[in-house]
Amino acid sequence: MELFFGIIYFAAGFVYNGLTVLLTPIGYGPMANDLTMGIWCMAGPLAGFLLRTPGVAFLGEFLGAAVEMLLGDQWGAANLISGAVQGIGSELGFTFTLYKMYNWLTLFISSLTLTFVTFGWDWFRNGYNHFSGQMLIIMLIARFISMFVFSGILVKLISNLLQRAHLIKH
Asked: Which residues cross the membrane (predicted)?
């Protein structure tokens, strides 16, 4: 599964670059990161939601980032740090439910923790502390929407499809 997500993450780099080019002339180039972040954070919630074991959300996210790096993406070894940060954010969502609930609420909480943990990381890594308050709010909202669409809704739909195909049983 992480190999598959590593390939998706690698391809998401091209989407990120395209959005950056489109949004930069209107002053929103940095928001490309927030709009695509949900794609880069899918492996953790899916692994956690399917395998239902402490630590697998972190491991899923970290391994997906490692595969992306090995494919030769533009961020190189920095992916390992990002994968660890994203893995922590994903794992926290499952921790808040004590690994006992696996439903929409769990994915919502995981989307929230992913949003805040990764946004905090970007505060330092990508200089978000230099943006205006208005820009930060817009970026935070865009990031949460991206997280919930890709790491919440899409993860739940994938899980439902796998259950209907009798590939997993819960």
From this structure: 6-27, 39-60, 101-124, 136-158
